[in-house]
Design a protein that fits this description.
The chain has 287 residues and is mostly helical. The chain is flat, with a radius of gyration of 21 Å.
Length: 287
Amino acid sequence: MTENNTEIKMTEDSKTGITMMMGIISLIMGTLGIVLHYLLPLLFFEAILAAEADNPCVTTAPIFFPLFADIGILGGILWILAGIGFLQKKKWGYTAAVIGVVFSIKSSFWPNIPTMEGGAVLPVWFLIFLPNLVMYFVLLRSMRNESWIKMLFGMLTGMAFILNFINGIASTTRMVQYSPDYGVAGVFILTQRLGFIASILFGITTIGLFLAKKKEWVRIMGLSGAIVSMVGGFPLAIYSMILAFQLEEKAFSMFIMAPVISTIACIVFLIPGIWKKVMGIKEPTKS
């Protein structure tokens, strides 16, 4: 066997070992994700609601906690599917893992917010969030050797995915809180769906950054999500701060985070040179 052939064999063996290890880790991540997304609400949901009894979010938490559990369980199922794919050396294993880790990160972030607000329970959903955040980088680096700038941009669009959805949740809560005074609730009513729509567009964008072959469609999707977020998010944040000032509450509004992050992402999508640099798209050489 020649030296070149030996190096090729060692490289192939190394890739096989990484794939097998990723398969085992994926099965563990999926199993733990499913178990915890069942277990944590059953153990702590009642205590969280009791601690939030005087908070308006108590009216919508019973709707959204199960929804995030559904997303998390689906993420766990995708992790398990990815593990099977990796162990059987199937290309679709990576696809399932990318979608699974994005779903798992999303599902385990928001539940920590009402948990920390009430203070009755530790933010235990970080037990799901933090391992998946680590695995996001491990997966993309080990399986596709993605660049750090691209992975960090994926984190940015992922934050927009999460925060725009949270804006939709908070708008829903304010709608319930201020109804039937539609003069006060009007802006929350008008912008509520835009937060969810922007979130869906950013979710597709985040996954597409690493899986889509036609990157221009990903760019269009991300640009659309950013514009929707800015159109709905900035008026929502400004109105919320004005309303808080009138009610003599703290004026800073967390609604502002989603459109600000979306604006940063928009700059990347909008300028072709920056977009190509982030995505590692090389200009065709002129002959």
